[in-house]
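Q: Please design a sequence for this.
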């Protein structure tokens, strides 16, 4: 080990989660392999996976073959250690002491449900867009070792500002992953620390082709966003410039309501948009409401529906636009009861157009708002991804823990408001 933190990572059986965040060539995969071999040596079966099978074949498996004590593998399986053998599907490697190692790619996390083991290793987890693989693997580590060693999950990866940051980044205020972080060891392996095992001058030469931000991630294992997605707004000054005093919403003013809910039902947003009271070709945000459940509780959909129905009764709601994937039952229920024109909002092409439209409205100062703090935060949480020609884009989360529902609602409601002859 290069230092005490790495020694703890390799040899300690606690806490439950151990993550080695490393730069390119920092030795993180080797550290994870040696940690896994130590557990196998003591009779603990495990799982060793890469993000997908091609990555496993060209990266993790060749490195594992170099360190594996092939004399301890059952003779009938030692052929896997030969130079010309490579895996074509997941496989099991049995050892003489009764331990087994399940190997492969985890491109389909659900296919790994079933086996019960004492540990798992997930290499280069950053390549997965969400935490589903971690959740599946975590459920597999449920068998204590022969001497009572606790189950353990191992992550070896270069950092990335997505779900990895939520789980293994620094503790945040009101952090929903606080318990996970308290049961985790996170170490950092710099590329420079492993320079003795790299070509002479590699670190400085590699730095030449990187931006400063990229170097901090790829060489120093720092938390920094270097993905291709850009901030939805390059500066929040643009949003703040659209703030103005708006009159109280009149009972007869035509308004479009849009609703959006998170996939995990951790947030529900509603935004109401009208034509601007003084500039008819522009729009104005007249209603904003966000619901988030208390920790450990679910959203109260009865209360949410009651508030939406109150708006139908109190104001001239021309249309209720909603995401059909998340809110089909609510939207169709409103229609069946004759409460409102409830219209599905396609999350494909129409979403790309509405999200682009919201950006244009903000940049052209054609949308007015009263400075609602929740909506401002959701706008600030948003990144944008384009479809290649810059004419359409999608609002996406900068981090999986950050909410953007109100931003999506504003885009949906603004588009429908301008589409309708109001």
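A: Design:
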């Amino acid at each position: 080990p290069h230092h005490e933190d790495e020694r703890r990572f390799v040899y300690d059986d606690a806490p439950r989660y151990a993550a080695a965040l490393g730069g390119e060539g920092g030795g993180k995969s080797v550290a994870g392999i040696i940690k896994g071999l130590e557990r196998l040596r003591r009779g603990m079966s495990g799982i060793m996976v890469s993000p997908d099978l091609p990555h496993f074949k060209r990266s993790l498996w060749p490195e594992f073959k170099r360190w594996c004590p092939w004399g301890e593998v059952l003779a009938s399986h030692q052929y896997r250690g030969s130079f010309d053998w490579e895996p074509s599907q997941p496989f099991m490697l049995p050892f003489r002491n009764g331990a087994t190692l399940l190997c492969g790619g985890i491109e389909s996390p659900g296919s790994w449900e079933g086996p019960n083991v004492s540990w798992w290793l997930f290499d280069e987890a950053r390549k997965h867009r969400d935490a589903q693989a971690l959740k599946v693997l975590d459920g597999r580590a449920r068998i204590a070792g022969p001497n009572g060693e606790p189950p353990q999950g191992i992550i070896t990866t270069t950092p990335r500002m997505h779900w990895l940051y939520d789980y293994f980044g620094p503790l945040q205020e009101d952090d929903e992953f606080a318990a996970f972080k308290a049961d985790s060891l996170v170490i950092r392996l710099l590329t420079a620390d492993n320079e003795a095992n790299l070509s002479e001058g590699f670190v400085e030469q590699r730095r030449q082709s990187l931006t400063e931000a990229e170097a901090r991630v790829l060489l120093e294992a720092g938390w920094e966003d270097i993905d291709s997605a850009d901030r939805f707004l390059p500066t929040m000054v643009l949003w703040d410039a659209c703030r103005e005093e708006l009159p109280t919403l009149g009972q007869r003013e035509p308004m479009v309501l849009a609703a959006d809910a998170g996939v995990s039902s951790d947030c529900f947003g509603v935004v109401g948009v009208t034509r601007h009271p003084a500039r008819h070709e522009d729009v104005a945000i007249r209603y904003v409401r966000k619901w988030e459940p208390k920790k450990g509780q679910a959203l109260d959909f009865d209360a949410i529906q009651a508030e939406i129905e109150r708006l139908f009764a109190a104001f001239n709601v021309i249309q209720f636009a909603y995401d059909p994937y998340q809110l089909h039952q609510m939207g169709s229920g409103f229609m069946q009861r004759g409460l409102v024109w409830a219209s599905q909002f396609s999350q494909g092409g129409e979403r790309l157009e509405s999200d682009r439209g919201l950006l244009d409205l903000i940049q052209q100062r054609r949308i007015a708002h009263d400075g609602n703090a929740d909506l401002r935060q959701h706008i600030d949480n948003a990144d944008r991804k384009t479809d290649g020609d810059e004419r359409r884009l999608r609002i996406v989360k900068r981090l999986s823990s950050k909410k953007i529902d109100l931003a999506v609602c504003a885009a949906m409601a603004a588009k429908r408001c301008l589409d309708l002859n109001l």
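Q: Thanks. Anything notable?
A: The chain has 14 helices and 16 strands. The longest helix spans residues 53-67.
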